[in-house]
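Predicting holo structure, phosphoenolpyruvate bound.
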Amino acid sequence: MRKPIIVGNWKMNLDHLEATYCVQKLAWLLRDAHFDYSSCDVAVMPPFTSIRSVEVLVEADRLKIQYGAQTVSVTSQGAFTGDVSADMLAALGCKYVIVGHSERRKYHPEDDATLVDQVRAILAAGMQPILCVGESYDERKQGIELEYAVGQVNDITRDLSEEEAANMLVAYEPVWAIGTGMVATSKTAQDAAHAIRQHFATVFSAKVADSVRILYGGSVNSSNASQLMSQARDMDGFLVGGSSLDPEEFDKIVRLTQKAAKQR
Ligand code: PEP
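Done. Tokens:
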């Protein structure tokens, strides 16, 4: 059984003071609801400058909320102005790092070779990559969305060992659904998650396919989370952007997702 996970991608929002407030409020809401972290993971991905504040709060209050980063350098140290290494993130207690988010692919020169090196750096530092894949509206119109998303997974993971592949998380995030309010149907999300899982079974093994957690991302909120989760059996949770910035909304998404996962 894979443990569901809901990940909040804060993007370039919430400075270190706002981050502390947001995580504290989320933790209180989940505590008041007697949230069972043993059956569901909850993680936030702050900007680099807020990670240390989240770490201090999590340690001081012994919170079970996990956290990570939104990208990482491919190099370990040296003259790379502005970069942050995987070891630096691991030293801050990060558990996950997002790789290949469509906004990174669009605004930064992060090609497949870079993404492969990022995945290797993250795994080598003992963290788990959350690899984002998904088609644009053009590929969907052409009817090649599944081949496209699976192809992106293949491009980044094909040279990994079985053990490395089993530590991956994949977020299926159709680009047309990110930040647009146009959420995928549960069938679309399930079809993509199923195709990605089948790919891991074919290239690696049934064991790897069974352990990789596959998330859906794109305009998830508390009104659509239950339906999406209850009907997409290959999906193990969500990567949530905008709706993760409001702790009350994120708390609702987390609890609805956990409930829907239990009832499947
Ligand atoms: C994202 O950026 O990963 C995302 C899913 O954003 P949103 O939920 O705002 O569509």
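The CA atoms of residues 5 and 41 lie 4 Å apart.
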